[in-house]
Amino acid sequence: MPVSPSSAAKKPRPPASSGSDRRPLLAPPIEAPRLAIQVIERMMTLLDALAKKSEPVSLKELSQSSGLHPSTAHRILNDLVLARMVDRTEPGSYQLGMRLLELGNLVKARLNVRDAAAGPMRELHRLTGETVNLSVRQGDEIVYVERTVSERSGMQVVRAIGGRAPLHLTSTGKLFLANDDTRAVRSYAMRTGLAGHTPNSITALNQLEQELDEVRRLGYARDNEELELGVRCIAAGIRDDSQSLVAGLSISAPADRANDGWLQALADTARAISSSLGYERTAEA
């Protein structure tokens, strides 16, 4: 039997809450990009605070100078310690870490090398008519930071080109590997698997070690179509005032134009750039 609307049970309405019973609305969540930027800003605030002090700084002082809550500052500092950007000298005290020095020296070396190499690279290009490259090591790869190439309108210098290649497949990369000890070379081989790009690529550890012995004996390195078929390359090292190998200077050319007659000019140019960086050749070098 149908129920009439008048007799239908009505659901009781909940009692209206007073203003004091109302819960505050939740703030919208912070978007991920903004949250990441906020973390970086706080990290930089702490690093700047540490940079102003020559002695280790306590968590309490860092919290006060940065305006961050102690728990927030402590959490970020722990992450910076793990990244070696901050050192914990004793419980509750911090100072800038060695990783910052390493990164700073890397940037300094790259900037100095590029500035010092620009003119000599142009002259080497004029003498050879071929592409001249300046490369630095970054982990298990080389990075091309400057290149001088021929164009119809004359010579063009391309800065910070950013191309990368495995160490064992490039002439400059072999210079850096030859500068490593046996353990480091074998560790590199384990990490990378010595993957090849062409039939000429070195893909066996014993072959690589023989090649590096030859590089140490000669003082320069070759890429015999190992990265790209039809392209050969020779490289000489550039060192700074600390005697460290900081870059490689190389000449790349089509295989049928590659010429050992460039070796002396290449070595002289690399030596001139090294001298401008404060390098002094020792009797053993």
Question: Secondary-structure blueprint of this entry?
Answer:
Layout: H1 32-51, E1 57-58, H2 59-66, H3 70-82, E2 86-90, E3 93-96, H4 98-128, E4 131-138, E5 141-151, E6 154-159, E7 164-166, H5 171-178, H6 182-192, H7 205-218, E8 220-224, E9 231-239, E10 245-254, H8 263-276
Antiparallel strand pairs: 1-3, 2-3, 4-5, 4-10, 5-6, 5-7, 8-9, 9-10
Helix pairs in contact: 1-2, 1-3, 4-8, 5-7
Describe this structure in words.
The chain starts with 31 loop residues before the first helix and ends in a 9-residue tail after the last helix. The chain has 285 residues and is an alpha+beta fold. Helix 1 (32-51) crosses helix 2 (59-66). The strands form 2 sheets. Strands 4, 5, 6, 7, 8, 9 and 10 form a 7-stranded antiparallel sheet that branches. Strands 1-3-2 form a 3-stranded antiparallel sheet. It contains 8 helices and 10 strands. It has 2 domains: 31-96, Arc Repressor Mutant, subunit A; 102-276, GAF domain (Beta-Lactamase, 2-Layer Sandwich), CATH 3.30.450.40.
Q: What is the SS-derived class? A: alpha+beta
Largest sheet: 7 strands, antiparallel
State the helicity in percent bands. Answer: 40-55%
Mean model confidence by pLDDT:
86
Q: Can you tell me the number of structural domains?
A: 2
Beginning-to-end CA distance, first to last residue: 109 Å
Short recap of the structure:
By secondary structure, the protein is α+β, with helices and mostly antiparallel strands.
Spell out the key features of this protein.
2 domains, alpha+beta, Arc Repressor Mutant, subunit A, Beta-Lactamase, about 280 residues, 8 helices, elongated
